[in-house]
Specification:
Elements lengths: L10 H27 L4 H47 L1 H14 L4 H25 L9 H25 L5 H24 L3 H29 L1
Length: about 230
């Protein structure tokens, strides 16, 4: 027997974690590059980076919580509808489940038996999974998503901030950009590996968009610096 592990159960926290870390690296590094390109002093760069790190983490956590809470509300509403239908027309719901299995390729007689047994065991769970598409692995978890996003934003964003604070003044811009791109590539590769996708494609995808974002933000900072 070949043993294998599915990765679908990771999708909730993995998505939030990768999004938070990528956003932390990219947001903070781009912000710092814009300020540095405008020829601001080291103190201004440091304060800007810390403010961006705190604000970004709180915003990321709040945004994830609101977004995933809306998904959870929708799931609860669908389950309430299904629960009501099961209470008032159980036979029709069983027939509906049977038709789902027939469309998926089961013999009608076997589909009838499967629907009957699953409805006897856990009617709501069967309909949630096979009719609505709600499973324990993929169900919305607002607090988990918010916490993961906020923490990962800080972890990602603190890297370019440290590079900006520790690098000598003439090398601040290349230090921020270089460190950010390396971390972005690593995050893209790690996320691809965890999700079972191509590591090269995952890293390249993040690198391209990251480099473009930082370049544009740096250009804006340079323009404002020239106009001072």
């Amino acid at each position: 027997m070949i043993s294998h592990t599915h990765r679908t159960g990771r999708s909730g926290w993995l998505r939030a974690g990768v999004l938070g870390a990528n956003d932390g690296v990219l947001s903070v590094s781009s912000l710092l590059l814009g300020v540095a390109a405008a020829h601001m002093g080291g103190n201004v760069i440091g304060v800007t980076g810390i403010a961006g790190l705190v604000a970004g983490a709180l915003s990321m956590g709040a945004g994830e919580y609101v977004s995933v809470s809306s998904q959870a509300d929708t799931e609860r509403a669908d389950l309430d509808l299904e629960r009501h239908a099961l209470q008032h027309d159980f036979d029709a719901e069983r027939a509906e489940l049977r038709e789902i299995y027939v469309r998926r390729g089961l013999d009608p007689n076997l589909a009838t038996e499967v629907a009957h047994q699953l409805m006897q065991h856990d009617a709501l769970g069967a309909h949630a999974r096979d009719e609505i598409g709600i499973t324990d692995a993929l169900s919305a978890r607002p607090l988990q998503a918010a916490t993961t996003s906020a923490i990962s934003f800080v972890v990602g964003g603190i890297v370019p901030l440290l590079a900006a604070l520790l690098a000598p003044a003439p090398f601040v811009i290349p230090a921020i950009a270089g460190v950010a791109l390396i971390v972005l590539a690593g995050l893209g590769a790690a996320a691809a590996r965890a999700g079972g996708a191509s590591i090269v494609r995952g890293a390249a995808r993040v690198l391209v968009w990251g480099a473009l974002t930082m370049a544009l933000t740096g250009a804006v900072g340079e323009l404002f610096g020239m106009s001072r």
